[in-house]
Design a protein that fits this description.
Helix content is 41%, strand content 21%. With 213 residues, the protein is α+β, with helices and mostly antiparallel strands.
Length: 213
């Protein structure tokens, strides 16, 4: 801690991070041990966070992340989208295909940013807000492969006709971005993805990841 930081705020944020890392919640005693502070301090921290709906306690007294974090989370997508747009525009114009940034939302892949090329006669209509299972389409499969440590070789995934008949896609996962799981990709009306597209998508994913760090 430095003179410019707040010890209480720091502890509150640490509580939220600890609770976010567990599925079954934590007791006051467990939080006290992990934070290295007495139980009275933990009670005060939890009471304050509960007032803002950032923490809730179940009937057994275990603290869990509260629904209030969803309101904060909704503001993340616009920030991520803004950071990703320059790389997506460059990718769409270079490849001549619709570029997109896809993030994990529960068990689904959610397109949060989409850029269409300006110079092509036709392209795939794809919009922000589109959802699909993670195990279908290049975007979701790239995320799963990265999650499972199975993305070997070229570093991207290809798919054809899994989400839309006649459409092919390529996607590469974001890497090294804390708290964000996603991919960058393109979708095009083609029976196959040209060879140069995969490496270009990998480069775009790296650009987006750098912008988000």
């Amino acid at each position: 801690m430095t003179a410019e930081t707040s010890q209480t705020l720091d502890r509150g944020l640490r509580v939220l991070k600890l609770l976010a890392d567990t599925d079954h919640g934590l007791t006051v005693t467990e939080l006290s041990s992990k934070l290295g502070v007495n139980r009275t301090v933990v009670y005060r921290l939890l009471a304050t966070l509960e007032q803002h709906a950032l923490v809730r306690r179940d009937l057994g007294g275990r603290a869990r992340v509260g629904l209030g974090v969803l309101g904060l989370g909704r503001q993340v997508h616009p920030l991520v989208r803004e950071a990703a747009l320059p790389a997506l525009r460059s990718l769409a114009e270079d490849i001549g295909a619709t570029a997109h940034l896809t993030l994990v939302d529960g068990a689904e892949a959610l397109a949060v940013a989409v850029v269409e090329p300006t110079w092509t006669d036709y392209h795939v209509a794809y919009r922000a807000g589109i959802r699909h299972p993670l195990d279908r389409g290049a975007a979701g499969r790239a995320i799963l492969a990265a999650r499972q440590g199975a993305l070997n070789g070229p570093g991207y995934m290809l798919a054809h006709g899994e989400l839309e008949a006649g459409a092919s896609g390529a996607a590469a996962p974001l890497s090294g971005v804390t708290g964000i799981e996603g991919s960058v990709g393109v979708v095009m009306l083609s029976d196959c993805v040209p060879e140069r597209v995969g490496p270009r998508v990998v480069d775009a994913a790296r650009e987006v990841a750098d912008a988000l760090r």
